[in-house]
């Protein structure tokens, strides 16, 4: 990794000058061992910055194609998360982090796009472990990420991950993200098939080769009846079936991942659109409950997700 990143004096902060490689991370993921978090323990304050972050037009085009997104000159709103998620994985694979990446699931994502980012635009991409709380289902922790240029934040994101279990201590502490209201009287609907190979296709674009997305036999090892598509692919498909975002105005996208979308299934999105605000639920065939609940709405210049 010496050719693309430099570790500063404090071992809990990383600095990159090129895209962080994933192969060393996956070696650590599969050799790290079980979660060793103890009740009352605080997660380490890991942080990182990718200086001059950017992506090739070819890879962004491949992402658009695999997610069913239209062509454009700006990065899709979810794409900076695709870029920074490899650093999130690096945090979880670190020996300093007492959580096994194999036991963590992506529970929620909130994104505030202050302005559109051009496909060929370079920026500094930051992320930091920002907080934790114990809930009935287990331990939640969240990572804040933000794209910065010339001292201004262009894009902000709070990603919440969940580790299920009952040995993390007493429950308490508010969620950093408010719950979404129930979807009432939907006036928009879209449906699509989820190809059997979409897990591998999306992994090739985004670099997330979690075994549960690749093969049915591998997913069964982790307790799933069959392999499932990446949650962020399903969320991207939802945005592809909502009205286009005005690139000149701030916008916020919130989503909670409630269940899996299995490969080879049919997904149906129901939404209620009121002006430029859209509240949506995604369903997977055979499941009466929504597997993703989300909203896409205008934001103000004063809004922030970073506290």
Give the tags.
single chain, about 300 residues, Thiol Ester Dehydrase, Chain A, 12-stranded mixed β-sheet, about 20% helix, globular
User: Average pLDDT across residues?
Assistant: 91
Count of strand segments? 12
| CA-CA gap between termini | 32 Å
Task: Tell me the name of the CATH homologous superfamily.
Answer: Hotdog Thioesterase
Tally the helices.
6
Alpha-beta content class? alpha+beta
Order of helices and strands: EEHEHHEEEEEHHHEEEE
What's the gist of this structure?
With 307 residues, the chain is of the alpha+beta class. It has one domain: Hotdog Thioesterase (Thiol Ester Dehydrase, Chain A, Roll).
Describe the structure.
It is a single chain. The chain has helices at 23-29, 57-67, 79-93, 198-206, 216-221, 231-240, and strands at residues 5-7, 13-16, 47-53, 104-113, 123-135, 138-149, 152-164, 188-193, 251-257, 266-274, 277-284, 292-298. The chain has 307 residues and is an alpha+beta fold. It has one domain (5-298): Hotdog Thioesterase (Thiol Ester Dehydrase, Chain A, Roll), CATH 3.10.129.10. The chain has a 12-stranded mixed β-sheet, with helices on one face. The longest helix has 15 residues, at 79-93. Mean pLDDT is 91; it is low at 1-11.
Mind sketching the topology for me?
Elements: E1 5-7, E2 13-16, H1 23-29, E3 47-53, H2 57-67, H3 79-93, E4 104-113, E5 123-135, E6 138-149, E7 152-164, E8 188-193, H4 198-206, H5 216-221, H6 231-240, E9 251-257, E10 266-274, E11 277-284, E12 292-298
Parallel strand pairs: 2-3
Antiparallel strand pairs: 1-2, 3-5, 4-7, 4-9, 5-6, 6-7, 8-10, 9-12, 10-11, 11-12
Helix pairs in contact: 1-3, 2-4
């Amino acid at each position: 990794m010496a050719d693309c990143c430099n570790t500063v004096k404090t071992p809990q902060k990383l600095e990159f000058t090129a895209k962080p490689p994933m192969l060393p991370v996956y070696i650590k993921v599969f050799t790290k061992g079980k979660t060793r978090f103890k009740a009352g323990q605080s997660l380490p304050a890991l942080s990182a910055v990718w200086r001059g972050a950017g992506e090739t037009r070819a890879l962004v085009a491949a992402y658009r194609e695999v997610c069913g997104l239209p062509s454009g000159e700006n990065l899709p709103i979810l794409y900076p998360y695709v870029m920074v998620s490899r650093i999130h994985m690096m945090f979880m694979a670190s020996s300093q982090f007492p959580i096994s990446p194999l036991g963590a699931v992506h529970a929620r994502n909130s994104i505030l796009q202050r302005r559109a980012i051009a496909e060929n635009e370079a920026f500094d991409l930051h992320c930091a472990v920002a907080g934790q709380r114990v809930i009935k289902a287990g331990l939640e922790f969240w990572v804040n990420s933000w794209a910065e240029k010339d001292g201004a934040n262009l894009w902000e994101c709070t990603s919440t991950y969940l580790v299920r279990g009952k040995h993390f201590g007493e429950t308490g502490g508010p969620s950093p993200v408010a719950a979404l209201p129930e979807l009432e009287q939907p006036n928009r609907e879209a449906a699509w098939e989820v190809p059997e190979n979409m897990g591998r296709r999306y992994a090739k674009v985004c670099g997330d080769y979690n075994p549960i997305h690749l093969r049915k036999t591998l997913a069964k090892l982790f307790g799933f009846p069959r392999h499932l598509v990446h949650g962020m692919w399903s969320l991207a498909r939802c945005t592809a079936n909502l009205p286009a975002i005005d690139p000149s105005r701030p916008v916020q996208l919130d989503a909670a991942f409630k269940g899996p979308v299995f490969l080879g299934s049919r997904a149906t999105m129901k939404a209620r659109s009121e002006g430029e605000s859209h509240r949506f639920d995604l369903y997977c065939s055979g499941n009466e409950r929504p597997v993703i609940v989300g909203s896409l709405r205008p934001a103000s210049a004063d809004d922030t997700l970073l506290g």
